[in-house]
Amino acid sequence: MNWDDPTDATADEGLAGPAAERLVGSVADGEDQAVEAALRPKDLGEFIGQEKVREQLDLVLRAARARGATADHVLLSGAPGLGKTTLSMIIAAEMGAPIRITSGPAIQHAGDLAAILSSLQEGEVLFLDEIHRMSRPAEEMLYMAMEDFRVDVIVGKGPGATAIPLELPPFTLVGATTRAGLLPPPLRDRFGFTAHMEFYEPAELERVIHRSANLLDVEIDTVGAAEIAGRSRGTPRIANRLLRRVRDYAQVKADGVITREIAEAALKVYEVDARGLDRLDRAVLQALLKLFGGGPVGLSTLAVAVGEERETVEEVAEPFLVREGLLARTPRGRVATPAAWTHLGLTPPRPATAGNGQQDLFGA
């Protein structure tokens, strides 16, 4: 796999095993989905963070309601766990419309999409998660459905095949993707409103944690919330997951109140450090630093060193390490940055003895 090519990668949501099991993983499992349903804000006023997106989306929805029309199609992009599904439900609630939820991997044939579209009610919101993973024939059918509210159903095969036009009621498509670059331009161009979801600042995550703690009937002080927020990797889903685990620790080991000391002790048990790194993240850094002198080292070699699959290291651990400035991807392989040595309390090698590719990182 060529990391330099954005099309040569598997989607985060498609990973199994460690990706779904990690406490700081951004993929929602069954428990997360159940809890998220209870914690989801019901309108834009309750939604925390993403100020620009909320302001722009509010204008789109208000204008549509004033015209008495369905809202334009909406494309939401961003990392998992930032609130794309929640916003789709808010769009439906703000428009007073029902919502239908499906995903790209579930639509592998044009007929699958035709069956869904033909059963939509007027004004209904269709939420299509992982839209970049939909099959090409279904994509091409979606073009006409979004633009003309019509699909052509092909009946028969070969020379005798005929296309039967099927009129659709006006609807709003909300597409969500973690890989906006994988969407073909004709599909992207048919969305009337596109928004990119940014990672959250710690102060915003503190507000998310306080709100969730109130809904979960958990007592937490300001510094305890700040400690959890600082380890949540900028993602509300992870913040809520860490809050639940710290709550469990506080109930069993303390009086149920979450303070900084309780949060630190709980997250130490769950192996989530002060920057949000977990066991897998630290294993990758330790192998890179201790076994390979900071790199450069190939991805496959690094994966073998930590006992994980290549895809797990590339799709699960690397994105956060790169975003935190602890690891760099170079044409010759993965290289640790000076911040990685500092974070693990190790001394970097002298520049003269550092591996190829480190001169520009450590300086002359």
Automatic annotation (TrEMBL):
One of its GO terms (molecular function) is DNA helicase activity. It catalyses: ATP + H2O = ADP + phosphate + H(+). The keyword DNA repair applies. ATP binds at residues 39-40, 81, 84-86, 147-149, 190, 200, 237. Residues 20-200 are annotated as: Large ATPase domain (RuvB-L). Residues 70-201 form the AAA+ ATPase domain. Residues 201-271 are annotated as: Small ATPAse domain (RuvB-S). Keywords: ATP-binding, Cytoplasm, DNA damage, DNA recombination, DNA repair, DNA-binding, Helicase, Hydrolase, Nucleotide-binding. Its EC number is 3.6.4.-. InterPro entries: AAA+_ATPase, AAA_lid_4, DNA_helicase_Holl-junc_RuvB, P-loop_NTPase, RuvB-like_N, RuvB_wg_C, WH-like_DNA-bd_sf, WH_DNA-bd_sf. Residues 355-364 have a biased composition (Polar residues). Homohexamer. Forms an RuvA(8)-RuvB(12)-Holliday junction (HJ) complex. HJ DNA is sandwiched between 2 RuvA tetramers; dsDNA enters through RuvA and exits via RuvB. An RuvB hexamer assembles on each DNA strand where it exits the tetramer. Each RuvB hexamer is contacted by two RuvA subunits (via domain III) on 2 adjacent RuvB subunits; this complex drives branch migration. In the full resolvosome a probable DNA-RuvA(4)-RuvB(12)-RuvC(2) complex forms which resolves the HJ. Belongs to the RuvB family. This is Holliday junction branch migration complex subunit RuvB. It comes from Streptomyces phaeoluteigriseus.
